Amino acid sequence: MATLPSLSGLRAFEAAARHLSFTRAADELNVTQTAVSHLIRRLEEQLGVQLFVRRNRALELTREASSYLPAVRGAFEDLRRATDRLRRPEREGVLTVSTTA
Predict the structure, then answer these.
(1) Is the full-model pTM beyond 0.85?
(2) I need a surface site. Which of 11, 12, 59, 98 has the fewest CB within 10 A?
(3) What are 65-76's pLDDT values in tens digits?
(4) What is the tens place of the pLDDT at every residue in 42-93?
(5) Largest CA-CA distance found in the chain, in angstroms, rounded
(6) Beta strand 58-61 pairing with 52-55
(7) φ, ψ dihedrals at 67, nearest 5°
(8) What mean pLDDT is predicted for residues 5-14?
(9) What is the CA radius of gyration of the chain?
């Protein structure tokens, strides 16, 4: 069974990919730009794949990152939905009836 990559690294990747900016991803995640850069570098090492092409003041997704991103976004969305359901369980078996006199 393959080991999953760092959740922090995946969060940094998703934010950086959405903004195409380590700086804006850092602002969103409340960390420094350097922290995002380190998280991305570590994630790339874990995956054995380069995720971004770093240009002078510009960031581009690699082909591999473009194909990986939808799955990462989907996984985070699944986690959000599951957390919402956990926090607000459906009120099964409860019937509320209101009437007037």
Answers:
(1) no
(2) 98
(3) 999 999 999 999
(4) 999 999 999 999 988 889 999 999 999 999 999 999 999 999 999 887 666 6
(5) 73
(6) antiparallel
(7) -80, -25
(8) 96
(9) 19
List CB contacts of 28: < 8 A, sequence separation 6 or more.
15, 19
Distance from C-alpha of 63 to C-alpha of 57, rounded to nearest angstrom:
20
Beta bridge partners of 90: none
Please give the structure tokens belonging to residue 27.
Answer: 């602002």
Residues with Cβ within 8 Å of 91's Cβ and at least 6 positions away in sequence, in order, are none
Coil, helix or strand for 52? strand
The Cα 13–Cα 1 span in angstroms is: 23
